[in-house]
Amino acid sequence: MNKKFIIIFLFFIFLFLIPFYYQFSFSKYVFNESFIATKIQIDKKPVIEVLSISNTNTGYEKYANSTHLVTLRIQVTEKNVAMNHFTRDNIQILVNDTTTKPSIKLSLLSNNNGEMLYDLILSNLTGNGKLSIVFPEGIIEDAFGLKNDFQKYETGIYIDNISPTSTCKELSIENDKSQYMIQSNENLRPINGWDFYDSHSSLSKIFPSPISYPITITDYAGNTSEVFVNIQHAKNIMLYYATHNSGYPINEFNHSGQISGKQTIIDASSKKSERIITYLDGDIDKSILQARVFDYTYWGENTTDLCNSSEIPYSYGYNPSPTTWYDITGQNAIRFLNKIALQLGGYGHNQAGNSCMTPKKPIPQEIAKQNLYGLSGIAFQLKNCEEYSIVYQIYVPSVGWLRASSDGEETTYSHDKPFSAIRINIVPKSEKQNLMNYWNRVIYTDYVG
Fold it and tell me: How far, in Å, CA of 272 to CA of 72, rounded?
């Protein structure tokens, strides 16, 4: 290889390496260059959000009416608030997409690190339909001019201020019982002793005997209406009774809450009930009916007389005693109007010239005319009966109807004030209070039906 060739070869090698030299030199320059970046803070719009919602309509929180309180827990998030118009006047309440004006209470609970916590309490909500809350745009504005967005919040609560309406019917079923049906236009809350039939808008109950009384039905929002239960055709269990007032003959038995002695009320008569005759019929043990009375006689304590018609003895005071009971299996059973019945008290209290057994003490004519004596207290019970109750109410002349009693409780105005009319009924225990409340509407009146 000659010298000229070597020089040419080295020259080309040099040319080849020159770009790499400048490339490395440029990279080093870039690597050593430094820049300062500007810090940019990105601001967000104020945020309004509902954290929770509650309703005082316990058990039916998805429904409310004007009596309930609806509370929303609301959080407003913004650290740099420049304008705060989050007030009750700027919050819109809609029911069925129509603006309504309930009572509004807005309370600030806390304000920590840009988070404001409020309670919005709504009451006296009127109208009917879905409840929604509108937070208008711009009620919160920050220092950079950013505003909250428009927001419509659906609460999931239905406002209902309309009472339910219903239709009723009595259906006769086997064993002389009746099924009573209440069909409403909307879903109802359960009623003790009643069953839902097909849906929650239909209630049903089986009755063994006639009865009439109102019952309250309630929809999910708490609105109520009164429905009148009227059982006429059931005869599975029947309670018959008649009160004997001197001068008012007994031609038939009353039953199922009918007033026995009604004519004495109509006549404003002073004649009192001297005896009550009663019996059970139907699919029930006849002897479970038990009773005792307080008999107020002319002759006073520790005296006894015989009933003029049955010759069964009756005494001044409790018959048989304050702690014992009569039933149809005892000596007070009589045949009356072709029925075996239980007699309480005895005929002859106000009959002039009548005397007790010992000592002989005839009733003076003037005393007899005043009709001062008779049954003044009475109690009934159904022995060992868990399914039914017995309800009774007496009428005292110049006083009116007394408060209804039941299941062994004595009813009396005072033992020296005999009564002149009575009504009695056997009812399912679940319906006892409903019947008593109904009868008590007429206390201290001369109601005759």
Answer: 64
Whether residues 150 and 287 share a domain: the answer is no
Q: Which residues lie closer than 8 Å to 404 by C-beta, 6 or more apart? A: 391, 392, 393, 411, 435, 436, 439, 440
Are 271 and 247 spatial neighbours (Cβ–Cβ below 8 Å)? Answer: yes
* Pairing status of strand 211-218 against strand 224-231: antiparallel
Chain centre distance of CA 201: 16
Say if CB 430 and CB 285 are below 8 A apart.
Answer: no
| pLDDT tens string 364-376 | 999 999 999 999 9
Q: What type of residue is 84?
A: N
pTM of the model: 0.83
**Interval 281-330: pLDDT, tens:** 999 999 999 999 999 999 999 999 999 999 999 999 999 999 999 999 99
Q: Could you tell me the CATH number of the domain that includes residue 131?
A: 2.60.40.10
Dist. CA 437–CA 404, nearest whole Å: 8
Identify the pLDDT of residue 11: 54
Which of 190, 216, 231 represents a domain boundary (last residue)?
231
Structure tokens at 376: 């003044």
Query: For residue 32, is it within any domain?
Result: no
Chain segment 81-124, per-residue pLDDT in tens: 999 999 999 999 999 999 999 999 999 999 998 999 999 999 99
> Is 50 exceeded by the pLDDT of residue 142?
yes
